[in-house]
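quick one
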Amino acid sequence: MTTPTTAPETVQLAVLAALDASPAGVLEDSRTLVVEGRKMDGAPEQILVKAAVDSLSRREMVSYTQKDTMVNFLTPEGTATLQNGSQEAQFWKALNLVGEGEGKTLKQVQDVIGEAAAKAGQPTAMKKKWLTREGATFFKAVATIEDTAQADVKEVEATGTLKGGDKLLYDLRKRKLISQKKFIHFTVSKGPNFATTITKLETDLTSEMITSGAWKKASFKKYNFAAAGVPTDGGSLHPLLKVREEFRNIFFEMGFTEMPTNKFVESAFWNFDAMFVPQQHPAREMQDTFYIKDPSTAGAPPQDYYDRVSTIHESGGHGSIGYRAPFSLPESQRLLLRTHTTAVSTQMLYNLANQPGGFKPAKMFSIDRVFRNEATDATHLAEFHQVEGVVADVGITLADLIGFMKEFFAKMGIENLRFKPAYNPYTEPSLEIFQYHAELDKTIEIGNSGMFRPEMLEPMGIPSNVRVLGWGLSLERPTMVKYKIKDIRTLVGHKVDIEGVRKAAGVRLDKPVM
Ligand code: PHE
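structure w/ phenylalanine:
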């Protein structure tokens, strides 16, 4: 189908001329229009007519009603039936009449007419009693047949319909031999502003028109309140920010308060030592952690707390035997880009134990950026965001942790959690959180959690009957799933597509996002 090129105004004038020529002032069927020698009876032409009558009716020069007609046309299978006969007829044709030669197996018929035609044609031909069967071989049961499907298709091809009626059309549609398409045309009549010419309507009242007085004679275009506005160029939220907001709301709904995570640089003391991560732990190596060169050292931690942390590392206490390795202040004071937001949770827990009035139960969360000295690829960045929750209260247990996880993730639409024992230096027990993904028939890791160790909590001064549970996950992963982003580098960094950010849909975590 070639794209029609007749100018819109030409079609409008033709409609007006046709109305003018009609004694009743009505164009009964817009398919009868002829514009510049072109018959307007096809579907692309009627689209032009629609544009014309829409425009004219906005000026109230015409009014119109749209008429729909359904037209049947042949599908590729229908065309094949027209040319080669129906599949059942092809099957029959491929055989010998019973008693006049050898029978053919389904496989042999397939070799002649193709697998699809043979498989679909055989049962129909059988039902029509065109075939007989001896064991695995088929014969023609009758010497002649009437291929009604082919005849019907031929009729549709010629007339667009079937005299036999809707039931037969329905059968052909069900066999996918024909398909239906809606066509439109219009009945047009004169409107209150009818004229045979179109005056240009002014769209703006200008200062020149006012000073010259031209406005008095001008005709103005009616204001279209339904017109879509120009999209604004205002700020748009990055997908990570949208998902972050959803997570925040889940935490708020569950009674959590937000922790102040607005600093990326931490001391090794808060990032590692206070969490009972041994000073010899491999995660502290340069290839895993970004250390700061200038300035390179933090101020000294609170002395009494530092002493207690140092003791628990070197020689233990509170039932622990510690790491029995030397503990160094310079190592504690090294500055680094925090490797997890748990560094902030740790300070908040310390504050909780040392606030005026002493410890009070708390539920706290944070969503912020962390840094790891890792090679970047499609699913890893050297910086990403952690979503983290911490709950501190008297006598809570591992069962509370699991219960919390279930409730938290259920609010994101994630069910079927599974837990696997894991290891973190600062939690015991530790659980990796998995989700069984029915669609993928796979279990995927979605987070990490645990009960903070007494070696971490006791030196802070958290009462010994208080247990603290925590969990963390990345913000990027659910965002990538939600927005179907394959490469994390197109989500964060210089490859982010600004237009994509502008157009990214809003997010609701009511469907599974992981
Ligand atoms: N800090 C952990 C991580 O980096 C997450 C976590 C937080 C685990 C709290 C247990 C408790 O993955």
